[in-house]
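User: Predict the complex with magnesium ion.
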Amino acid sequence: MQNTKVLMPKLGQAMTEGVVMQWHRKDGERVAAGDLLVTVETDKATYDLEATASGTLHVVVPEGEEVPIHTVIAEIGDAPVQAGTASAPPAAEPVVQPQKASRPGRILASPKAKRLAAEHGIDLSTLTPSSADSVLSAADVERAAENAVADQPPAAAAHIASRRTERERHPLTGIRKAAARRVQAAWQTIPHIVQMVDVDASGLQAIRERLRTDISELTLNDLILSAAARVLAGLPDLNGTVENEELILYDGVDIGFAVDSPRGLLVPVIRGAHDLSITQLVRERQRLVEAARAGQLQPADRGPASLTVSNLGMFGIRAGTPVINLGEPILVFVGAVEERPVVHNGQIVARPMLTLSIAYDHRVADGVAASRLSQGLKEALEDLDSKSLLEIPNPQSPTPSPQEALGKREVRSVSAGGRYAVQVRSHGHVWSLDEPASDGGEDTGPDPVTAFLGALLSCMTIAFKAAARRRKITIERIAGHAKAPPKGQVKEIALTLAVWSAASEQDLQTLLERAKRGCYVSGLLKPDIRLTVELVRHVPDAV
Amino acid sequence: MKKGEPMDQEQLVRVYKTSELARRFEAKIVELAMAGELPPALHVGAGQEVAQIAAIEALRPDDYILYGHRGVAYMIARGVSLADMLADMAGKEGATSRGKGGVMHVVDVPKGILGESGTLGGSFVVSVGVGMALKRKQPDTVVTYFFGDGTANRGPFHEALNWAAVQKLPCIYFCENNGFAISMPTSRSTAVENIADRAAGYNVPGVVVDGNDPVAVYEVMEQAVARARAGHGPTLIEAKVTRLQGHYVADQQEYRADIDTVAEKDPLPKLQQTLCDRGILTQTDVDDIQADADQQVEAAVAAMRAAPLLAPEVALQDVYA
Amino acid sequence: MPTRTYSQAINDALAEEMQRDENVILYGQDVAVWGGIFKVTDGLLEKFGPDRVFDTPISESVMVGAGVGAASMGLRPVVELQFADFVITAGDEIFFKAGMWRYMHGGAHTIPLVVRAPSGGSGFGPEHSACPEAFIMHAPGLLCAVPSTPEDAKGLLKQAIRLDNPVIYFEHKLLYQMRGEVPDGEVLTPFGKAVVRREGEAVTLVAWQGMLRRALAAAERLSQEGIEVEIVDPRTLNPFDRETIIESVKKTGACIVVEEAYRTLGVGAEIGALLVEEALPYLDKPFKRLAIPDVPIPTSQHLVDAIVPSVDDIYRAVKDLVD
Ligand SMILES: Cc1ncc(C[n+]2csc(CCOP(=O)(O)OP(=O)(O)O)c2C)c(N)n1
Ligand SMILES: [Mg+2]
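Assistant: Here is the predicted structure with magnesium ion placed in the model:
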């Protein structure tokens, strides 16, 4: 057996020699791998080295002497020390570097980290664990390997030389990790062009004041969201994305807006914003903000959108070069409203101004097309008209905001005397629920389960029709059928929608999928209740 | 119970011959075990082999047997190779259970020897399934399970007899009551006087027979077989037998009060005497039979000695089909 | 594709195999006239008659032991135990007769026996709620199936009936009413092939049956936070598809086993040992088990909830591991 050689380590980029300060074990003593062996000093610091093998210690370089790096300062083992070992060994000879005793005892590293370190030729003792348990992880090694590839100075050297010392290190997790990935992908794949337009905000401010008496929650940003949606609805060529060298164009405008939440920046989406009155839009915006803050955004509440508005005006930022959200063509960055000197009718006057910095996916919009939106938005904002804002823009296809429906979701009931019958009232409607005579009631109305089935079936039908409207598919008639076991706990509900329409089976199936998602009543079912919805298509007579 | 067919002379001679062979074969095994050539794993059947062989005489070659640990006469009666059984003990090529079961799990399905459960009474429940399969796939055949008096106290006895009776399976339960379970006398382990008395609990016939009388054993067995073949279900037979030797090879039997007189109860000399008295066999015939038995035993020992040990990897085989 | 409940899928498998092979017989307590206490075998007596579908006395030992005897003589019995816990009640017959009859007789017998064992659930108390598959997995000679979907329930049972080895087939009581797609035509699920139920990078979850459903629910939640877990469903515990688990752990570097059974020396312990023996260089995080602390399973639901791994427990365990 050959002895294991202990070398003066190279502990920093600039280190060429080191001093043996103190031998912690005596010459001729038996040492075990991991024992504290020797303290060496460089011009910057002192280091404790551990034995990397077990056996008898043969000290070659006594305390106090300075030697070049890679000099054999001791040998461990039971073979006699060879003469002349004090010179630097030839490069081919395998040498064992003593490990830096950065922590007392052995280096804690996950088995995977150890394997990767061996594969990359990385000395684990030079790494700092990032996790709280002080165990080196595979990620630590991978990071070091990347750094090595980038030919950066090794961590230990950086540690010594730089004033910018690493304080903490956290692997990105959760939303932050996902967001980092997405923003990187967006930046790398979308060719951005940014246009900036200044907007005279006096009209905006005036309108907001006027409408606030009715819509107390109205913000300037709501007006911008609304205007952006309407302008974009008039520029259908900009409502698209490029995927795999295909330009995909969309009908309908969904507008995203950024919300700061405890879990990071979220971008909820107002669906069909171009079809909403400002009142509806504000309600939906409020709902989404609350949901985002509470961490309760549903998948349907999230992107991609046709256009996203981001507003950093409250931080006094005037303009920027925003990054478009992945899968979207446009991002409107809204700057601060501020008094600026402008020339008005030949006079320099102070006007409340804001700047829009609008980023476009250059694959979707060339400069001219982009300018149409930039300019259109400017004009719309400077020339807002409260009457049209309050109207539902496209009365042929009104999409009732879920929020609007929610406002009505208040029900009162009364049940008098010894009877089961319950009278239910809501917003001017009155109806009764009861039990059949066989179960002790008087059959003045459906029993609650049946009534619920009715609600479920109706909701599914309405959601189906709403989806059809949105996609401009004509439905002549829908006949529904709902069935649940006659007695006791309901575990299974089977719905059938018979739909009379000239649309294709595939289109109707798509509508059904939409309807299932849009049917809020089915959302009230316990998850273990099995709901099936079957579609039966009838082609209407050609007459 | 009505009387079965009586045994004919030829059958009685066969019982005698087989009993001589079994007695001599087991004695040889004990000899080799004492010499250290074989493991001392045999529970000698001496004294019980006459009943065992007489019972099997009432079966047809296509009937099946599950057996207990008391000796190897069952196998000899069905013609299993002696050399193979020695190989079972020695862990050599030819072993019927390929070194997995030793002398306790000798198996030869074509000869109707299905095997043994090492946990006593485990074959009660197996026999029920065998009966279920026979009823469906090989009607007119039967399965007989031989077990000891001590084994009759295990739970599976109850479950099996009950369900076999309910299903009217072609199963025969043959208890060899030798008065002991190792050192424990039956009188201290068992509340009923006769194991067969329990048959009433299952609504099946329970018959006690003198196990030292091969003709009587044959007769009750014959009846039980006929009943089983006719689809009327199981019978519980109890043969009162004598365990001439210790429970296992080195058992000193300090617990045994009848130790000095037990040899007098040996049924084998009596059987030989009867055959000679009736003029069925001459002394020369007897000498020939004994010499032939010894010769078969010696040939088997020689074959076992010549066989190679099973390869170690055999231990890993036969777990799964 | 048609959808069937797990229970219907088992019934379908039995009916199809009994139709295909007249050696297949089915028996157990209350399985024939009553259709089984969980109604799994409903209608089979009418289809196949009392000679092939029949009720037994309350005699677990002889039910299983007779299965071994009948199997060794050419039948293909399917035995229903009313509760999986009773594999211990019929311990001699399961472990020694079914598991070893062939071995101790040097391969002279083949034992094409299936023991169906309804496992898991709660409210039944300590002797009626267990998932005792680790006992089976520990024992030589017994194949062990743990189907988690209607399709696998059917495919594994049909395969089990055709195999020439004894199979302990655990059917989870809480899955009986679960509905899922079952392909038309012959469905045969191979033994020893795990399936990745969900792909991810963060950690490998190994779970089956009741715990698989919880693991999938937890995974859904984790996914909303950007954590994608990989879920491996072993489908059979013997044979056990080690490769799929090891391959997954090579990717994720971490593994959590979720088990509806006692922790000590459970299936999870085996997987942990496997990873240490064969995948140590790929482990980046401590191996973890979520299982029932070593206590019997109580009857009251809230006490059961206190000891059986929940969606929350799984969610938290993953978070603790990846954070
Ligand atoms: C379940 C079980 N318990 C105990 C034993 C150990 N054992 C082997 S033989 C025997 C005595 C059996 O007595 P009996 O059934 O009367 O048969 P005998 O030995 O008298 O022929 C015992 C206790 C065993 N093999 N299996
Ligand atoms: Mg006895």
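Residues 83-104, 152-159, 395-406 of chain A have pLDDT under 50 and may be disordered.
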